[in-house]
């Protein structure tokens, strides 16, 4: 071993010998790096596990190798024949919303519940199996028995209706027997978010139910099983070429649930950036730990300088030590965040709504390791560069702050290069480069502002300590003087705790505003129900039925659904549009028609067509979304409605505000554009809450095919979704805050030696323990409160930018969340300070002062 050591370069030999003494003083260093790396690695591993799960189970999730979706129609015979001729198996399912009704034996009343119905054929499912309770084959659960068809409902719906297996339930005008509860359907993730629990029924059993009448709102999904080696994407291109006007949407097993994947990618990118914020906070801890360690090594460095060691040798010795410890910290983080999910994830995999293939993935671990190494080097380089400048004279002097000052220009350039590489890596690898760039800019700005605030606090403390008003308040004066003094903990505490609180403050304000947007900012007069699928011949009777109840008002409009296929002649997939409007082209959109301008419609440009207009199709488009799509007056937009391409010229733009919860459409065409097209009507009914039950019973009893959507239930589902997102964001922010607390504790521990000397001097001068303790407490509390105030200001600014520019909503400041951040910051700093105050207070002054001689 000694022979091997002798062959090593001198700096490395010195570094290894010092490391033999253990990692005392570097626990904070290791904890900060490990937490940040673990956060980034864990989020990246979970995101990749879900992506790999979706890819591996893509065929099962989709229900086949490919799917063709037709909007509110069944495939034409030619389309069906084309698909059957080129595939091994075909299954047709129909997806729509409806009301399920039952005479509940439990309540003795007629109960109704909104449900997402999937009607299937005998071939369903092509892949996987439906799991039912009690266990039985799907054909047994849904088939005809004793003249009655069967259905299967999700347990939540069964509980809501108060029925049991064997009871009768009604869909539309047809009565069915409840045969089983749905435990699992293999293609649940591909269906997206429904407005109600799932119901399974055979498509042939819907005959006579009046639910799939012409113009009703439903989607037909044709699942395809291909021969081995067939390319589903190529088959999709061929279908589009042979049926260019079909208006069908094609997807295959490579991307079975695009909505789920987009959500996972976005929330994953956000949480990785929050993990990087934790690393940034950890970087402050790294710098503080390295500085504290090198402070204690001042005598060693001075001795080496006296013996002829150059500044370069000193730098190399301690850089080797920092590098070795950084590797250890990164390894611990990778073990926690990379290996941990692979071991723990399978335990929770079955409870996830999407498949996840948990394993050890190299990419997120490599990314996390890169971030960890760059962070350690970028933040450690400053104190390392200053250690190189320690003079041999420091060995014979009691230097208060040997590492004070600025590094050389070459070192500043190296630090800047490492920081740029760290930010550039985060932007390039996050998967959301624009968001990552803004996030990185915000984090850097927050660090700068917090550093400036710490300097301002020091100056303010110095000014306050000298005021006449401080006479007679020795504890407060001592606390202020300590905050202002050199080598204090003000800067480190403000940076570490402040950045963690900034992230938490921003998330708290965003969460408050999103909830207020859903709850408080809804119009004071919002509808009780949306009623859909009202047939043309039912409209008059529907209005009569509704108006007999205690309702305030009713609004109706004809409704169709269409897919935008071209914008001014350019295929929608190739059009250059604002990313905020991509959702308009992603699926089918509501379309209506009107001869006269709807009441309350405000035109922003152009004019409405004449009531008796009979020319080429014209369209009125939402002003905001039309501009985002790049449309101008006179441009054309092509919409596929029920398999028919309609190209309309933009006649006017109008203001549309979906937040008023009324009937709003992106597109309203002239009546002639839909001449003879089958369609239904939608109605919004405004009624007091106490009248909702009677209204629902009246409409449900008179119109079996009409579906009621409760606005209150829809808002609750949105609020629950926002709550889940906020919870995920708070967990991410919690890692950042935890890292900040570790840094804060480390700073308090590192300052124990200085506080011990300070307490000894004060005791010698006659100060009581209580007064010294009060001074320490005030110092810590003021530092935390100042960090909290700055974090609150910067976090509120970040939240304002998200709400105003991303969510396009008005910002509202949450005082409760703000108070929690400031009080939490002061309390955290106070507790950390007090935890390390008892040792200095109990030390004997004579022993402490004698040791400094």
Automatic annotation (TrEMBL):
The ABC3 transporter permease C-terminal domain, residue ranges: 273-388, 734-839
PANTHER family: INNER MEMBRANE PROTEIN, MEMBRANE COMPONENT OF PREDICTED ABC SUPERFAMILY METABOLITE UPTAKE TRANSPORTER
Native source species: Rubrimonas cliftonensis
Transmembrane parts of this sequence: 26-50, 270-294, 314-336, 368-385, 412-429, 435-454, 475-508, 731-752, 773-806, 818-841
Cellular component, GO annotation: plasma membrane
Top-level taxonomy: Bacteria, Pseudomonadati, Pseudomonadota, Alphaproteobacteria, Rhodobacterales
InterPro entries assigned to the protein according to its UniProt record, in alphabetical order: ABC3_permease_C (IPR003838), Membrane_comp_ABC_pdt (IPR038766)
Membrane topology: Multi-pass membrane protein
Domain of life: Bacteria
Record keyword Transmembrane helix present: yes
UniProt-annotated location(s): Cell membrane
Protein name per its UniProtKB record: Putative ABC transport system permease protein
Keyword Transmembrane: yes
Keyword field: Cell membrane, Membrane, Transmembrane, Transmembrane helix
């Amino acid at each position: 071993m000694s022979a091997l050591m002798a062959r090593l370069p001198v700096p490395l030999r010195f570094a290894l010998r010092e490391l033999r003494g253990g990692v005392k003083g570097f626990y904070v260093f290791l904890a900060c790096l490990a937490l940040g790396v673990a956060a980034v690695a864990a989020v990246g591993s979970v995101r990749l596990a879900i992506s790999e799960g979706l890819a591996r189970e893509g065929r099962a999730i989709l229900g086949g190798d490919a799917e063709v979706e037709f909007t509110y129609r069944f495939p034409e015979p030619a389309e069906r024949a084309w698909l059957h001729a080129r595939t091994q198996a075909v299954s047709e399912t129909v997806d729509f919303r409806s009301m399920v009704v039952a005479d509940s034996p439990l309540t003795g009343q007629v109960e109704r519940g909104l449900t997402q119905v999937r009607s299937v054929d005998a071939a369903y499912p092509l892949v996987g199996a439906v799991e039912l309770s009690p266990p039985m084959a799907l054909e047994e659960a849904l088939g005809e028995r004793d003249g009655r068809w069967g259905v299967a409902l999700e347990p939540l719906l069964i509980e809501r209706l108060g029925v049991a297996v064997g009871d009768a339930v009604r869909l539309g005008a047809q009565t069915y027997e409840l045969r089983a509860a749905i435990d699992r359907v293999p293609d649940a993730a591909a269906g997206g978010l429904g407005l109600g629990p799932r119901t399974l029924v055979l498509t042939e059993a819907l005959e006579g139910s009046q639910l799939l009448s012409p113009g009703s709102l439903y989607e037909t999904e044709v699942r395809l099983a291909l021969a081995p080696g067939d390319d589903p994407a190529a088959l999709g291109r061929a279908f589009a070429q042979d049926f260019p006007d079909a208006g069908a949407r094609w997807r295959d097993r490579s991307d079975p649930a695009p909505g789920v994947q987009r959500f996972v990618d976005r929330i994953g990118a956000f949480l990785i950036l929050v993990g990087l914020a934790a690393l940034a906070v950890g970087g402050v801890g790294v710098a503080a730990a390295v500085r504290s360690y090198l402070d204690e090594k001042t005598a060693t460095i001075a001795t080496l300088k006296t013996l002829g060691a150059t500044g370069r040798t000193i730098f190399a010795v301690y850089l080797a030590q920092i590098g070795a410890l950084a590797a250890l910290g990164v390894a611990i983080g990778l073990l926690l965040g990379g290996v941990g999910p692979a071991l723990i994830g399978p335990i929770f995999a079955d409870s996830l709504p999407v498949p996840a293939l948990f394993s050890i993935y190299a990419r997120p671990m490599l990314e996390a390791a890169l971030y960890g190494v760059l962070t350690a080097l970028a933040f450690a380089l400053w104190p390392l560069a200053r250690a190189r400048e320690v003079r041999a004279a420091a060995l014979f002097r009691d230097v208060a702050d040997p590492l004070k000052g600025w590094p050389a220009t070459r070192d500043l350039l190296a630090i800047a290069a490492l920081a740029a590489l760290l930010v550039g890596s985060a932007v390039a690898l996050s998967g959301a480069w624009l968001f990552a760039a803004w996030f990185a800019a915000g984090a850097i700005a927050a660090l700068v502002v917090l550093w400036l605030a710490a300097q301002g606090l020091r100056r303010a403390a110095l000014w306050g300590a000298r005021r006449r008003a401080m006479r007679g308040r020795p504890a407060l004066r001592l606390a202020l003087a300590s905050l202002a003094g050199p080598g204090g903990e003000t800067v480190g505490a403000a940076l570490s705790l402040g950045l963690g609180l900034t992230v938490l403050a921003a998330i708290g304000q965003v969460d408050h505003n999103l909830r207020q947007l859903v709850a408080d900012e809804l119009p004071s007069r919002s509808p009780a129900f949306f009623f859909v699928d009202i047939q043309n011949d039912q409209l008059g009777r529907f209005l009569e039925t509704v108006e007999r109840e205690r309702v305030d008002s009713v609004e109706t409009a004809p409704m169709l659904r269409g897919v935008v296929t071209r914008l001014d002649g350019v295929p929608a997939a190739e059009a250059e549009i604002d990313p905020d409007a991509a959702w308009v082209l992603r699926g089918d959109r509501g379309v209506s028609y009107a001869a006269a301008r709807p009441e309350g419609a405000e035109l922003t440009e152009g004019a409405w067509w004449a009531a008796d207009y009979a020319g080429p199709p014209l369209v009125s488009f939402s002003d905001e979304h039309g501009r985002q799509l790049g449309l101008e007056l006179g441009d054309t937009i092509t919409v596929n409605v029920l398999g028919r391409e309609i190209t309309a010229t933009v006649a006017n733009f109008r203001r549309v505000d979906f937040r008023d919860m009324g009937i709003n459409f992106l597109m309203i065409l002239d009546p002639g554009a839909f001449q003879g097209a089958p369609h239904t009507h939608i109605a919004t009914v405004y009624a007091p809450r106490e009248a909702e039950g009677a209204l629902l019973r009246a409409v449900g009893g008179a119109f079996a095919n009409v579906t009621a959507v409760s606005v209150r239930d829809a808002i609750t589902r949105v609020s629950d979704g926002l709550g889940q997102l906020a919870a995920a964001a708070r967990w991410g922010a919690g890692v950042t805050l935890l890292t900040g607390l570790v840094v804060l504790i480390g700073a308090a521990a590192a300052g124990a030696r200085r506080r011990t000397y300070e307490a000894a001097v004060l005791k010698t001068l006659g100060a009581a323990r209580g007064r010294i303790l009060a001074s320490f407490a005030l110092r810590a509390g003021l530092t935390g409160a100042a960090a909290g105030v700055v974090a609150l200001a910067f976090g509120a600014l970040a939240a304002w930018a998200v709400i105003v520019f991303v969510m396009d909503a008005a910002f509202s400041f949450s005082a409760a969340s703000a108070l929690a951040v400031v009080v939490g910051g002061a309390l955290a700093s106070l507790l950390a300070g007090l935890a390390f105050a008892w040792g200095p207070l109990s030390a004997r002054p004579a022993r402490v002062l004698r040791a400094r001689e």
